[in-house]
Specification:
Elements: E1 15-17, H1 20-35, H2 41-45, E2 46-50, E3 56-67, E4 73-80, E5 87-93, E6 97-98, H3 100-107, H4 117-137, H5 141-150, H6 159-170
Helix pairs in contact: 1-4, 4-6
């Protein structure tokens, strides 16, 4: 559930969001590329940027949209602000976001708090499984935002942490009808 003072991210009028199925298909495609070492999970989904006040931040790209009137791609960023600001969801142009490698090259900053490559890969596997359920259950846009907002990225910095979290997430009553088997965790 969202806190009562949270403002939902505004979508530009000419933007076309992903559907549940579109998100599922993107995740499935990206996971194949990641599995074939053609794409980095951390570089593709953990991004660096600057907000409208030119403050730098690290965040997670959780959903995409495209502008109907241009080639611009928007990314819904979930970011954890300093302790006083909390979590935010914000649509940002992809052209204003940078991978870990680009952030180091252009801004000389490193991501010291984000997940490992293995952990980000596992997080994307969890997201794919969630979106199998979202497609079957026809989640609303609001329900997706609620999931993105509540997802504990900041606690899942290792593969083991993500693997331990899977049964907790899918054991929630929201997923009561969802049947899934989980891969064994290698300790």
């Amino acid at each position: 559930m969202f806190p009562s003072d949270l403002e939902l991210p505004a979508m530009p009028a000419s933007a076309v969001r992903e559907t549940n199925r579109g998100t599922l298909e993107r995740l499935a495609h990206d996971l194949i590329l990641i599995g074939n070492d053609q794409l980095s999970a951390a570089d593709s989904y953990r991004l660096f940027g600057h907000d409208e006040l030119d403050r730098s931040f690290w965040g997670y790209g959780v959903e995409a949209a495209r502008m109907d009137d241009s080639r611009e791609i928007l990314v819904l960023m979930r970011r954890d602000e300093e302790a006083t600001l909390g979590k935010t969801l914000r649509w940002m142009p992809l052209s204003k976001l940078y991978t870990r490698k680009q952030a180091l090259l252009f801004y000389e900053v490193t991501d010291t708090e984000g997940p490992t490559e293995e952990a980000m890969h596992e997080i994307l596997e969890v997201f794919r499984d969630v979106f199998e359920f979202a497609v079957a259950d026809n989640w609303s846009y609001y329900k997706r935002l609620e999931f993105y907002y509540a997802f504990p990225f900041e606690e899942l910095t290792s593969k083991e942490a993500v693997m331990a979290f899977r049964p907790v997430l899918f054991g929630c009553s929201a997923f009561a009808e969802f049947e899934h088997t989980f891969p064994e965790c290698e300790w």
